[in-house]
C-alpha cells in the first residue's frame, strides 16, 4: 500500500510553520501535522482565507485549537517576510514547510520588483528560511522541506535573467522557479552538512488544487479554466494524496539531505517515493551562483555555522 498519513510519527512538542496553509496541499499538510500533535503556524497571505482555513482545521480537530495559529505572510513582499520572522514568538522552529507558490501567471512583479513567480516561489522562501535559520538550528532535529514540481524539468534557471526581463514565457518562468527550489535545497543541504538540519524537497505530482487555474482565471480565460478544472476532476489525484510526499519528507525517519520525494507512479500519483530530478538541479556551481544572487536580491545573508 505504501506510506500514508497514518505513518506520520508523533509530532507533539514540535513547532511547524507551513506557508500557503489556507488551501490545497498546504492546508492538508498543516492539518495532518496538527493531527499528530504539532504546534502549527498557518502562514498565509490572505488573512480572511487563512482564518477560514484555521476554523475548518479546528472544527475537524478541536484538540488542535490551542496549538494552531494563523499569522500573515506575503512571500511577494520582503517586508512582510521580515515582519513574520520578527514577530514569530517561538524560540525554535522544528519544521519549516516552504509550500506556498504560484503557477503560470501573467507577467507581473512583486512588491520588491522581482518577476512574480521567481519572487514568490523562490526568493520569498529563500528569505524566510534564512531569517528563521537560527531558530531552526536551535531545534534538536529540524527540517526544511521545499515544495518543487516535476515541471522543473521544463527549464533550467537563467542566471543572467533571473527576473525574466529579456523575455517572459509563463511556463518557462514557472519551471525556472521550481528548478530554483531544488538548487536552493541542494545548496542549503551542502552548507549545513554536519548539522542536524535536513534540507529536503518534494513535489505532489498532478494534484487537484486551485494552483492550476489561478493564472487563467486572472485573465478571464473561462474555456481554458474549464478544461483545467475537468483535468483536475478526471486525471489528478486529490490534495490529500498530493500532500503525502511533503509529509513524508517532513516526518519520515531517515530522509536524506537534498532528497527529492514525489509520487511513485511516473511521478504523477501514488505513494511517496524517491523522484527523478533534472541533472542541472544537482550542479554545485549553479547552486552557488543562485545562492549568491539570492542573498544580493533579498538582502538576507545566512549565518551558516562553520
TrEMBL record:
Gene3D superfamilies: NAD(P)-binding Rossmann-like Domain. Keywords: Oxidoreductase. It comes from the Bacteria. Pfam families: adh_short (PF00106). InterPro entries: NAD(P)-bd_dom_sf, SDR_fam. Belongs to the short-chain dehydrogenases/reductases (SDR) family. This is SDR family NAD(P)-dependent oxidoreductase.
Amino acid at each position: 500500500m505504501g506510506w500514508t498519513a497514518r505513518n506520520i510519527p508523533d509530532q507533539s512538542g514540535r513547532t511547524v510553520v507551513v506557508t500557503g496553509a489556507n488551501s490545497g496541499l498546504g492546508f492538508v499538510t498543516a492539518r495532518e501535522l496538527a493531527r499528530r500533535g504539532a504546534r502549527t503556524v498557518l502562514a498565509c497571505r490572505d488573512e480572511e482565507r487563512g482564518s477560514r482555513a484555521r476554523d475548518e482545521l479546528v472544527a475537524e480537530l478541536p484538540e488542535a485549537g490551542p496549538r494552531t495559529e494563523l499569522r500573515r505572510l506575503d512571500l511577494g513582499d520582503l517586508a512582510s517576510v521580515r515582519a513574520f520572522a520578527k514577530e514569530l514568538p517561538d524560540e525554535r522552529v522544528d519544521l519549516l514547510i516552504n509550500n506556498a507558490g504560484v503557477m503560470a501567471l501573467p507577467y507581473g512583479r512583486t512588491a520588491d520588483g522581482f518577476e512574480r513567480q521567481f519572487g514568490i516561489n523562490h526568493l520569498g522562501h529563500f528569505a524566510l528560511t534564512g531569517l528563521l535559520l537560527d531558530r531552526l538550528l536551535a531545534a534538536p532535529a529540524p527540517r526544511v522541506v521545499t515544495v518543487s514540481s516535476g515541471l522543473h524539468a521544463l527549464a533550467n534557471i537563467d542566471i543572467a535573467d533571473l527576473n525574466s526581463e529579456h523575455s517572459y514565457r509563463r511556463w518557462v518562468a514557472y519551471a525556472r522557479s521550481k528548478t530554483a527550489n531544488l538548487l536552493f535545497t541542494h545548496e542549503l543541504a551542502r552548507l549545513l552538512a554536519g548539522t542536524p538540519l535536513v534540507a529536503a524537497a518534494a513535489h505532489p505530482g498532478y494534484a487537484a488544487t486551485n494552483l492550476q487555474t489561478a493564472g487563467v482565471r486572472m485573465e478571464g480565460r473561462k474555456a481554458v479554466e474549464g478544461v483545467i478544472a475537468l483535468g483536475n476532476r478526471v486525471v489528478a489525484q486529490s490534495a490529500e494524496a498530493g500532500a503525502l510526499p511533503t509529509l513524508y519528507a517532513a516526518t519520515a525517519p531517515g530522509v536524506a539531505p537534498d532528497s527529492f520525494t514525489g509520487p511513485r507512479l511516473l511521478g504523477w500519483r501514488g505513494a511517496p517515493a524517491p523522484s527523478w530530478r533534472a541533472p542541472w538541479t544537482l550542479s554545485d556551481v549553479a547552486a552557488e551562483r543562485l545562492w549568491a544572487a539570492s542573498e544580493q536580491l533579498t538582502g538576507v545573508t545566512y549565518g551558516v555555522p562553520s
